[in-house]
Structure formats: structure tokens, C-alpha cells
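A reminder from the course coordinator: this example appears on the midterm review sheet, so study it carefully.

Given structure:
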């Protein structure tokens, strides 16, 4: 194979050479491992020497190879899973990587694989004895540019000495136009056990001179950088924020009259506050300040004539967790196939969404404020204060006729004691006359998602119009199907209810809330959907579950949660199917505010401390085989306790020295791959 790399070609030079490595291959990311039989290694290393690196640093493996001497079904399946998990690990652990290639060979059948954030694909197998085809395929890979092999030119890996830890640490430098930002610490990162998707990473960064000079600029302050893959052509968060702010500025110039449906039953003090915030522009303080953003690499388009391959592995691959949370959105799978296995918890209308395979584009955005997510706070008072500010932000969005659609504990932030509403990438204008049903109706974290959005069923059910046998099933009066669920303003408010309930149940120490926690906040628990529905609709069930809270807690906490539940349930029933009636939403914000303020008044600073639950204990290192105990434990762990390899590593490391305010840590991720 390396003979191909030595062939002199005009204007081309080999970017990689072949090596055999029939062993487990590690990266510098703790807790990760995958196996390969051989690989194409970059001629020019992308991996500055890292601590405890293996014989084959993952960052230099451009293409992985998996071999089997025969083509028995088990061997084919094993090769495919190894290729998939090799790609998963590479894309998961190295921020530089945009996509990944693999080669599998069984007997004399060769297949090429491509894994990316928008889709994954496998070629038709060709004969190893077809020399022309083999040379053409290998030469294409060997003489590809480094960027074509999947390395992002806008990201550079560096190794920086940490004085306190007395070892080198891998960091990344992101280029946004003509500006450069060095990662200091990973604040949040996906930990999904699948490849396709947004793959969001959040870093604490400092602005530096360049790729070659990574010393901090004079007076540079720490900021936050968000690295996310968006659907190609969709608005970035800055573009969405600009649209919302333009609408808010228009409201500041022409505030709605007191008879406007959006201000029905809004008290004078709140109306005055809203007017003032909109007129002087201080509403912007409720959102993050975007310093810079950049549209980056785009995933490759689909090959012409492709066909979906739902049974490309030994069994249909169905990512249960993601299907539940995104309405079976097939944009988030491991391979290029339809996820056609039915899920009884998802309505048929939502599981039959055809796969579109839309390309994705990488987006970097830098925020000025370094905040803490709600689940990182250690005082209930701070949580409720942040929720109050987020509630005001949501009410301003309501006045502007926008819905957030992804309210979660990670998207409500605390900054210097005040709350900020972040992550507007799913936000949309609420307009029933445009677009019919949303193409992505299920957005958000499952444990914080509104019950209606998650289940696809309306809480309000119409009573039969007649009890007479003669009036039933008449041809001239067919039963009308209920309207499709559309994300509305109250769904955003319901997420606040679930966030507060979750923090009270899981983050206050000394409570025996294991049953309630598993039922309500572990989406893979078989009781999850029914328990959440009952908790919202059944006052007795809700009260019984809340009896497990600590008895010495202020009574306003339990009564507040019961009241919020009652408000939501009653408003769903009274609104019925009139989701376009703005006057039905406006009073809910005030009712929520009164409850949250009552709770805040009863839990002064330091009264109720919060502790984040520890991550699940996993003794083994994650391997490529999806049946290993470590992956199984990880797949079964509740969403709120799972930590990614990067994040676990950053928690274990002591803070060290760097050129930026003596900061020195490294990374995290967020969620899980699941098989079957």
C-alpha cells in the first residue's frame, strides 16, 4: 500500500502512509478505547506530543482499517461495529475532526465508509483482486488533502505545559475569521453514543494572537465558545438573536396597548417593567452577549443514487433515546439508514418522518459572559432567582411572538447573581399561518420537555357531543382528529416547572427520592412517560410523590411545585385547542412569577444547599463492543448524571497555570451511543 504513496504525481503529494496496528488504540482522552487492524497515518502529525499517548495517537489516524479472513456473518458484523466505534471515538475525542473514513475487508470484499455529522455511508463492496479499483480507492485517500480527510482547518491542536500538573495538556485553538481563541476548560460537551447530530461543545476560552503564537492578547478576558453543527442554511444563534432583538426594539418604540391580548391580566408593575426593559434596551441583559461568530465547514452532500440501508448491521440500529426526544428525527443516527423500528412510546405520525439527510454546517459562537448552568449552582435561592429572570425573558419573547423550544437547566444560566436565557438556535416565531407543523416538533432535553411535545398527544380532550346511539358514527358527522401538537408558549413555561422539580428532587441532599427521580427524570425508565403525564395531570399522584422531599424544607417548596402543576394543568384544559389565542397565555407568566417569588422569599441565601449527583461508577474503559458492561452502564444511566470522558478528565485534574489567569483544565461531552 505504501508503494502507492511513493508514486510521483504532478502537483500531488501523499498526505498519509499505511501502518499496521492490530491492538487497542488510545487517545489522550481518558476512558476511551477502540480497536483497529491498520490505519493511514498522517505524514505531518496533527498531534503534538501528548501524555500517555499510545503507539497510534487517534488524532493522526486519518483512515482506519478492519480485516477478516472470511466473510461469515459474524465477522462482517464485527468489522462494521469496529469501524463504526472507531469513527465514533475519533470524532468524539478530537475537536479537529469534521468527518472520518474507514475501510473494511472480509475475505476479498472491500467496502469504504464515511462518517459525518449529517449522515454516514457505506460503499458497495468491490473485489480486492480488482487491482485497478483498489489502487484508485487507496490513492484517492492517500493523496487527499488533510482537510479532505476530515481535519478542520479552522481548529488547531496544541500541547501546553501545565506547571501544577507537571505535564503537557492538549488544547485547541479556534479561528473565527481573523480572531483566534484558545480553549482553557471544557464547560459542556455532548456525550451521545451516536455520530450524527449537533455535537455541541462549550469551552471556556481566551483570545490569543494566532495559531502559531498562542499567548493571550493584552487585557484579554475569559469568554465562552460554543462549537455546534447546525443544519446547512439554517440561521445561526446570532442571526436569530438579531431577529428577536429587532422585534423587541420595535415593541420598545410602540409598546402594546393595555387592551392587547398579550397583556391580558398583566399587573401594572409587570407591565411597567416590560415597557421599561423594551424601551431602554435593558431586555438584552436577559440574554447572552455575542462577541463573535463564524460559519465553518459543511458536511459532504449525499452521493448520487444512494439508497438507505436500515439493516446494514446485524440488526436494525435504533437509537431509542434520540427517537424519543426528537420525535424520531433521523438526522441523528449512526449510519445512513432510516430508523424504521417502531417505538410504542412515540405516536405513529411522528415515527414515519422520511429521512432527508440534510447537510450540516459547523458554527462557532463566542459569548462575553462566563456563566454557570442551573445544575452547577449550589444554592436553591440562586436557582430561583435565575428562573425568575428566565421567566421575564420568556415573557419578552412572548410579547415578540417567539418561542424558545429548548428550555433546559443548561440553557438557563446564572451570571453575577442574575439569570440569562441562552441557546436560541431552536427559537422560532410563533405563527400558526406559516409552515404548518414544524419539521422538528420535538426539541429539548427529554427530562425537561413539555409532556404534550414529548408524547404528541394533547392534554385537553374534547368530551363527546352526544350520548345517543343514533348520533354515533353518522356519515354526516365524522369524528374529527385532534390537531397536531405544536410547540407553544406554555410548553416553554412547563419546562421551567420540570427544571425546578428536577433540581429539588435530585440536587437537595438527604432525601429518599430515588423512585420519583427514576420515574420522572430517567427517560429510559419504562415508567417515564406515564409517570410524567400523571405527575402533571393528577394532583394526588403529584402530592404523593412530593411527600418524599425532606420534611425540614420550607413548605413553600412543596406547595409551590403543586401550585405550578395546577396552573399548567388548568390552563391546558381551559385553552383547549385554541393555541393561537394569546390572551390565554399572558396570565400564566404572572402566576408563575408569584409562585417563584414566594419560594425565593422562603429560601434566603444559604438556606437550602444543592449538591450535584455523582456520575455513575464505571470500572471498565469503554470499548468498541456495544455490549460491554461499561457502555451498558452508561446507556442506562440517567441523563442528569452521565459525564463524558472530556468532562470527567477536567473534573479529575487540578487547576493549573496558563497564560490566562492561571487557568488550566481540559474537557467534556454529553449524552450516549446506544445499540438496538
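Designed residues:
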Amino acid at each position: 500500500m505504501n508503494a502507492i504513496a511513493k508514486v510521483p504525481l504532478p502537483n500531488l503529494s501523499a498526505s498519509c502512509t499505511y501502518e499496521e496496528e492490530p491492538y487497542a488504540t488510545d487517545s489522550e482522552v481518558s476512558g476511551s478505547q477502540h480497536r483497529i487492524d491498520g490505519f493511514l497515518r498522517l505524514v505531518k502529525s496533527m498531534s503534538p506530543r501528548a501524555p500517555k499517548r499510545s503507539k497510534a495517537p487517534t488524532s493522526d489516524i486519518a483512515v482506519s482499517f478492519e480485516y477478516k479472513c472470511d466473510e461469515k456473518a459474524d465477522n462482517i458484523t464485527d468489522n462494521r461495529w469496529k469501524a463504526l466505534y472507531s469513527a465514533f471515538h475519533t470524532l468524539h475525542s478530537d475537536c479537529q475532526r469534521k468527518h472520518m473514513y474507514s475501510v473494511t475487508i472480509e475475505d476479498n470484499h472491500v467496502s469504504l465508509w464515511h462518517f459525518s455529522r449529517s449522515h454516514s455511508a457505506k460503499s458497495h463492496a468491490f473485489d480486492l483482486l480488482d487491482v485497478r479499483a483498489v489502487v484508485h480507492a487507496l490513492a484517492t485517500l492517500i493523496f487527499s488533502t488533510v482537510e479532505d480527510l476530515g481535519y478542520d482547518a479552522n481548529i488547531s491542536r496544541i500541547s501546553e505545559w501545565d506547571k501544577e500538573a507537571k505535564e503537557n495538556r492538549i488544547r485547541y485553538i479556534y479561528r473565527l475569521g481573523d480572531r483566534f481563541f484558545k480553549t482553557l476548560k471544557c464547560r459542556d460537551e455532548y456525550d451521545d453514543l451516536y455520530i450524527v447530530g449537533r455535537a455541541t461543545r462549550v469551552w471556556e476560552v481566551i483570545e490569543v494572537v494566532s495559531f502559531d503564537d498562542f499567548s493571550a492578547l493584552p487585557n484579554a478576558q475569559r469568554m465562552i465558545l460554543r462549537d455546534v453543527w447546525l443544519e446547512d442554511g439554517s440561521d445561526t444563534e446570532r442571526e436569530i438573536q438579531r431577529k428577536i432583538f429587532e422585534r423587541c426594539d420595535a415593541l420598545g418604540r410602540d409598546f402594546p396597548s393595555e387592551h392587547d391580548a398579550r397583556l391580558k391580566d398583566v399587573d401594572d408593575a409587570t407591565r411597567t417593567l416590560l415597557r421599561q426593559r423594551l424601551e431602554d434596551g435593558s431586555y438584552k441583559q436577559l440574554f447572552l452577549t455575542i462577541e463573535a461568530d463564524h460559519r465553518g465547514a459543511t458536511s459532504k452532500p449525499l452521493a448520487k443514487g444512494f439508497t438507505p440501508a436500515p439493516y446494514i448491521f446485524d440488526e436494525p440500529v435504533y437509537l431509542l433515546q434520540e427517537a424519543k426526544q426528537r420525535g424520531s428525527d433521523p438526522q441523528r443516527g449512526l449510519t445512513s439508514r432510516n430508523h424504521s423500528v417502531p417505538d410504542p412510546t412515540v405516536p405513529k405520525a411522528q415515527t414515519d418522518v422520511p429521512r432527508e439527510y440534510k447537510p450540516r454546517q459547523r458554527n462557532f459562537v463566542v459569548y462575553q459572559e462566563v456563566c454557570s448552568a442551573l445544575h452547577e449552582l449550589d444554592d436553591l435561592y440562586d436557582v430561583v432567582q435565575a428562573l425568575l429572570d428566565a421567566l421575564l425573558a420568556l415573557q419578552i419573547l412572548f410579547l415578540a411572538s417567539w418561542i424558545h423550544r429548548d428550555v433546559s437547566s443548561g440553557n438557563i444560566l446564572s451570571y453575577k447573581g442574575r439569570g440569562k436565557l441562552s441557546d436560541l438556535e431552536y427559537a422560532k416565531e410563533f405563527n400558526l399561518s406559516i409552515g404548518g407543523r414544524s419539521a422538528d416538533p420535538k426539541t429539548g432535553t427529554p427530562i425537561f420537555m413539555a409532556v404534550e411535545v414529548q408524547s404528541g398527544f394533547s392534554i385537553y380532550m374534547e368530551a363527546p357531543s352526544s350520548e345517543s346511539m343514533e348520533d354515533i358514527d353518522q356519515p354526516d358527522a365524522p369524528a374529527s382528529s385532534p390537531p397536531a401538537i405544536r410547540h407553544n408558549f406554555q410548553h416553554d413555561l412547563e419546562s421551567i416547572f420540570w427544571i425546578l422539580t428536577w433540581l429539588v428532587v435530585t440536587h437537595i441532599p438527604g432525601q429518599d427520592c430515588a423512585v420519583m427521580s427514576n420515574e420522572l427524570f430517567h427517560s429510559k425508565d419504562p415508567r417515564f412517560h406515564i409517570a410524567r403525564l400523571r405527575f402533571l395531570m393528577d394532583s394526588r399522584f403529584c402530592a404523593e410523590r412530593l411527600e418524599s422531599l425532606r420534611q425540614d424544607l420550607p413548605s413553600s417548596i412543596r406547595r409551590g411545585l403543586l401550585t405550578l402543576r395546577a396552573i399548567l394543568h388548568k390552563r391546558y384544559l381551559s385553552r383547549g385547542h385554541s393555541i393561537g389565542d394569546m390572551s390565554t397565555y399572558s396570565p400564566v407568566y404572572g402566576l408563575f412569577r408569584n409562585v417563584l417569588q414566594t419560594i425565593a422569599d422562603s429560601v434566603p441565601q444559604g438556606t437550602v444547599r444543592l449538591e450535584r449527583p455523582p456520575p455513575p461508577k464505571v470500572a471498565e474503559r469503554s470499548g468498541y463492543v456495544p455490549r460491554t458492561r461499561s457502555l451498558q452502564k452508561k446507556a442506562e444511566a440517567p441523563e442528569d448524571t452521565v459525564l463524558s470522558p472530556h468532562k470527567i478528565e477536567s473534573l479529575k485534574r487540578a487547576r493549573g497555570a496558563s497564560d490566562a489567569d492561571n487557568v488550566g483544565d481540559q474537557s467534556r461531552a454529553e449524552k450516549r451511543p446506544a445499540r438496538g
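The CA atoms of residues 147 and 153 lie 6 Å apart. Residues 316-352, 435-442, 616-632, 648-676 have pLDDT under 50 and may be disordered.
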